[in-house]
Specification:
Blueprint lengths: L1 H51 L2 H12 L7 H16 L4 E13 L5 E6 L2 E4 L2 E3 L11 E8 L2 H5 L9 E4 L10 H8 L1 H11 L5 E5 L27 E4 L1 H13 L4 E5 L3 E15 L4 E11 L9 H20 L6 E8 L7 H12 L3 E7 L7 E7 L2 H8 L2 H4 L6 E4 L15 E7 L4 H4 L12 H21 L9
Helix pairs in contact: 1-13, 2-8, 8-13
């Protein structure tokens, strides 16, 4: 009897194992079929972008016929009209403008900077930092004291009194990701004035935020923190080559005097808009996925890489879905955010209204890292969804999208962050980005057509997968 029982148990175990193997085989077949369909759709996205893409033409139109788009400016207002018209032209289900008040800072006359060295007048490429006050109408002349960081500047104390403080912190060029190098020294640009203004410094000049050596000054935002207005001082950036030369000349003549003149000022806040358009979801119209970039730019160049490329790539996501007859399950919302560069007013207002209106955002993708060769995506989400997105590497790697990593997403979508939403940043190659970032060299001719198109296809591919698999019981095989 005992032997019979053992035989029955053994038979049941063998049957159970065979059934499990059969079920696993069926599931594997399902995953294989599923992945094949997704792989085919992704291939179609890339084919369409490379053969029939519109992003490059849109970018040429934006940079040539609109140009720079600093918040509050005439260019920014023209860009809003341009964006609304284009969204309607490609046939989004609905398009609207979202009002927002934005800062209105103006540069004024071209800045001047120079100093004398060994009897020769050295002219310095210079630009005011966004948000800075002007110098007196006849400029400022003072001795220069050099520091390499905010921490070093904090130790100056009375030594800074009456001086122009020169922040000469360099990019760490051993870092492969140049955004990390930027993050390591951008604090001197933003907080330099508030750090030394309280010590009685007359002005600051900052080495431009670039890993290259060139003659372009790179602007960017700065702030005065909570210091009183009586301690506000003019703030300017000088080109990286000028910074190299000034540092060398200071070693030979620590008493040299630097002249700076700039005429910038801050006007009252101005009315502007986010531009919003969407494709309504076929199954879950109440669930929203945002794809966007920022419509504003600094005023020195045409805002091609920062962030014209992100704007046209975001709109091309919608174009490529429609062109390939993909009907998203969830609502796909394209947002051209206003005022990323000096305030994030558009992003904050979008998030505020989303909360007020009870909107459900399940995902967001931002492109604000330039239009260079695609490398992958960074993800800010819970562990489950990070793992889900990383399970798509097999589908995305054939297109050079190898880097799908946990990390930040983007400034404009960050106000949407909560425990459930999946925020994603598109990450192209970063090596050339800071050659042009916030400089007069950020123009249309610096954007490669094929790289831009590959970026659009990369973005629509991950949007397609997120739309299909986020917050459903369907998952791809890891």
């Amino acid at each position: 009897m005992k032997k019979l029982s053992l035989l029955i148990i053994a038979s049941l175990v063998i049957f159970s194992c065979k059934q499990t193997q059969k079920d696993t085989a069926l599931n594997s077949a399902d995953f294989s079929k599923q992945e094949k369909k997704d792989s085919t759709n992704i291939k179609h996205f890339f084919n369409t972008a490379l053969k029939e893409g519109k992003a490059y033409d849109w970018l040429e139109d934006l940079t040539t016929n609109v140009g720079s788009r600093l918040s509050g400016s005439e260019g920014a207002a023209k860009a809003v009209v341009w964006g609304e018209k284009l969204m309607n032209e490609i046939g989004l289900d609905s398009v609207w403008l979202q009002p927002v008040m934005v800062p209105h800072w103006v540069r004024g006359e071209k800045e001047v900077a120079n100093y004398s060295f060994k009897g020769k007048k050295i002219h310095v490429p210079v630009c005011a930092l966004g948000g800075s006050i002007a110098t007196p109408s006849n400029g400022i002349t003072a001795e220069v004291i050099e520091v390499k960081s905010i921490e070093e500047a904090e130790l100056l104390g009375e030594k800074a009194n009456g001086k122009i403080v020169f922040f000469n912190g360099r990019f760490d060029n051993t870092l492969i990701n140049t955004f990390k190098a930027y993050g390591g020294c951008v604090g001197q640009r933003f907080a330099g004035a508030s750090t030394v203004g309280k010590f009685g410094a007359k002005a600051i000049i900052v080495r431009s935020m670039t890993n290259g050596i060139d003659d372009y000054p790179h602007t960017g935002s700065m702030g005065y923190g909570d210091i009183p207005t009586s301690e506000y001082i003019p703030s300017a950036a000088i080109s990286s080559r000028a910074a190299e030369n000034l540092s060398k000349h200071l070693k030979e003549n620590p008493r040299l005097k630097f002249y700076l003149k700039q005429s910038c000022k801050t006007l009252p806040d101005a009315p502007s808009h986010n531009v919003v358009g969407e494709i309504k979801g076929s199954e879950n119209p109440d669930k929203i996925m945002v794809i966007g970039g920022h419509l504003d730019s600094w005023d020195l160049g045409d805002g091609a890489h920062d962030d014209g490329t992100g704007i046209v790539q975001s709109l091309e996501v919608a174009y490529l879905l429609k062109k390939n007859n993909i009907k998203p399950k969830n609502t796909i919302r394209i947002v051209f955010f206003m005022n990323e560069e000096n305030g994030l007013r558009g992003a904050k207002e979008y998030a505020r209204l989303a909360k007020v209106n009870g909107e459900i955002h399940i995902g967001a993708l931002e492109s604000d890292a330039g239009g260079h060769t695609p490398r992958g995506f960074s993800i800010d989400a819970n562990d489950k969804n990070i793992h889900l997105l990383q399970s798509w590497k097999k589908l995305l790697a054939p297109y050079g999208l190898h880097d799908i990593t946990k990390g930040g997403s983007g400034a404009d979508i960050s106000p949407l962050k909560n425990d459930e939403i999946t925020l994603v940043g598109y990450r192209p190659d970063s090596q050339r980005y800071f050659d042009y970032h916030h400089a007069a060299s950020d123009t249309f001719d610096k954007v490669n057509k094929r790289e831009l198109e590959l970026g659009s296809a990369s973005m629509v591919s991950i949007v397609y997968l997120m739309d299909k698999y986020l917050y459903t019981n369907e998952t791809l095989k890891p």
